[in-house]
């Protein structure tokens, strides 16, 4: 490169700004307006090989003109799933909040990290405020916390901090300084508990699965039995995970009773409220999490029920002694200098296992500022109202059968096509019923009319699991959902 080339910027600002303006219009038109338009497809489905040809994903030596790049932006949106669509019911998240999206735009534009106050002053202060508010809703007057890249990582933080709390030498000496550990979670808990045990070297064999009742809730008596069993096997019980809002049934473990068991055995109690934590905002429904204030740590994902946008997951600690910092710090002097000109207590980056960390607090803060706590409460209550309406409609319709009466906003049901009605006594009935949901799912995906998940659950064959959190959804969309299930499955 010639030396005089460094005398001028290598980026031409005006064409770049023009591209951004045109790309932003595509985002609004194709992503927001069409994405939220009920008359558009939820997904323009293509098989992988066909989609590869359409997108032309190969990377080449020479760049492409802006006109072609803008068309590629359109294609990316066109062939992606529109999770903001009023008939997207597939995940534990959906919808689009304009204020949260604006927060995402700002953080992406600023492109900063949260490890020190000097590089992220606004967001370091903002994160403290948001985390404090979440802790207050749990019922804690003090504590600590951090935003993590998803609920699975938040749960893993809980395991790591709990282990450090019991055996602080493990940070330097590793597993040689720790006896055989035992941790406990329900049979209906999220798979991240098993993954975390594997990743942290605890081992999945040392995860004791506690029995659940017919509603999918952990049975405290069996927890106590499992703890005593682990002790008899010379293991050290150090961690109990209670789930508030299981993935399939939406069950809430009885946290208050579980806390009593943990207190008797002096075991760290973590509550995975990634899914159900937002019910704390509702005066009407916060009772589902009674006892959560007795937890040592909590996972809560506002990107789910509150519609903050992926990702936004808080790991919250009742402890305010700095255990999060002690557990994870490495004290890198090139980043966490001790002789800075400001109060280095604001440098939170050594609390995490990450170095660079995305700003996840702004979208939640901006959305909260716009809606207020009351507005978020109304959003939560509306989601519950959707589920009550759907459950009542299912009871009225021939061929629809609830798996369980919903306690939360997980609506699990079977659709029994006409050919299977009255055939319950046949030996192959369950086998045939289990094939219904996958076929209907395939048909709706290829048609693009809507999107809903299905899965087996326990001894039950495949059932649909509908989740509605998007406040743009209307009763018409819910009625369409049931009608469409019937249309797509009546010939099976």
SSE topology sketch:
Layout: H1 13-33, H2 48-55, H3 66-78, E1 88-89, H4 98-110, H5 121-138, E2 144-148, H6 151-166, H7 170-173, E3 181-186, H8 192-199, E4 207-210, H9 220-232, E5 236-243, H10 255-265, E6 268-272, E7 297-300, E8 313-317, H11 323-328, H12 361-396, E9 400-402, E10 410-415, H13 429-434, H14 436-447, E11 451-457, E12 460-467, H15 475-489
Parallel strand pairs: 1-11, 3-4, 3-5, 5-6, 6-7
Antiparallel strand pairs: 2-8, 7-8, 9-10, 10-12, 11-12
Helix pairs in contact: 1-3, 4-12, 5-12, 6-8, 9-10, 12-15, 14-15
Description of the structure:
The protein is α/β, with parallel strands linked by helices. Helices cover 41% and strands 13% of the residues. It is built from 15 helices and twelve strands. The chain has a seven-stranded mixed beta sheet with strand order 2-8-7-6-5-3-4, with helices on both faces. Strands 1-11-12-10-9 form a five-stranded mixed beta sheet. The protein is globular and about 75 Å long. The mean pLDDT is 96.
């Amino acid at each position: 490169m010639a030396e005089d080339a460094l005398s001028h910027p290598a980026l031409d600002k005006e064409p770049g700004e023009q591209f951004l303006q045109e790309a932003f219009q595509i985002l609004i038109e194709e992503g927001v307006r069409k994405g939220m338009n009920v008359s558009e497809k939820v997904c323009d489905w293509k098989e992988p090989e066909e989609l590869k040809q359409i997108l032309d994903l190969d990377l080449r030596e020479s760049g492409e003109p802006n006109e072609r790049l803008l068309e590629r932006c359109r294609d990316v949106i066109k062939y992606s799933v529109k999770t903001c669509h009023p008939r997207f019911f597939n995940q534990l998240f959906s919808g689009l909040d304009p204020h949260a999206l604006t927060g995402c735009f700002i953080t992406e534009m600023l492109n900063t990290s949260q490890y020190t106050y000097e590089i992220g002053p606004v967001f370091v202060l903002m994160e403290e405020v948001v985390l404090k508010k979440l802790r207050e809703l749990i019922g804690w007057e003090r504590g600590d916390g951090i935003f993590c890249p998803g609920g699975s990582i938040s749960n893993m933080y809980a395991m790591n901090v709990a282990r450090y709390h019991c055996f602080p030498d493990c940070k330097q000496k590793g597993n040689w300084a720790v006896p055989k550990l035992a941790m406990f979670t329900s049979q209906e808990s999220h798979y991240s508990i098993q993954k975390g045990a594997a990743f942290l070297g605890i081992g999945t064999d040392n995860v004791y699965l506690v029995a659940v009742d017919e509603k999918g809730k952990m049975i405290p008596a069996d927890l106590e039995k499992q703890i005593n069993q682990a002790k008899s096997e010379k293991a050290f019980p150090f961690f109990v995970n209670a789930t508030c809002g299981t993935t399939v049934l939406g069950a809430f473990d009885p946290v208050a009773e579980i806390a009593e068991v943990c207190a008797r055995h002096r075991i760290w109690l973590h509550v995975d409220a990634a899914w159900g934590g937002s019910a704390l905002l509702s005066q009407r429904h916060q009772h589902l999490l009674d006892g959560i204030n007795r937890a040592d740590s909590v996972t809560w994902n506002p990107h789910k029920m509150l519609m903050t946008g992926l990702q936004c997951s808080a790991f919250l600690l009742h402890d305010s002694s700095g255990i999060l910092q002690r557990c994870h710090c490495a004290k890198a002097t090139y980043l966490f200098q001790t002789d800075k000109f400001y109060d280095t207590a604001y440098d939170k980056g050594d609390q995490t296992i990450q170095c660079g960390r995305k700003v996840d607090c702004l979208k939640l803060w901006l959305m909260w500022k716009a809606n207020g706590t009351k507005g978020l409460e109304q959003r939560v209550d509306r989601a519950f109202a959707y589920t009550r309406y759907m459950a009542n409609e299912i009871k009225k319709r021939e061929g629809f059968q609830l798996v369980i009466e919903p306690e939360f906003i997980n609506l699990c049901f079977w659709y029994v096509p006409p050919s299977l009605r009255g055939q319950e006594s046949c030996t192959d009935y369950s086998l045939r019923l289990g094939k219904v949901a996958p076929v209907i799912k395939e048909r709706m995906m290829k048609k693009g009319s809507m999107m809903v998940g299905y899965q087996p659950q326990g001894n039950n064959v495949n059932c649909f699991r509908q989740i509605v959190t998007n406040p743009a959804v209307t009763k018409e969309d819910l009625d369409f959902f049931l009608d469409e299930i019937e249309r797509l499955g009546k010939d099976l």
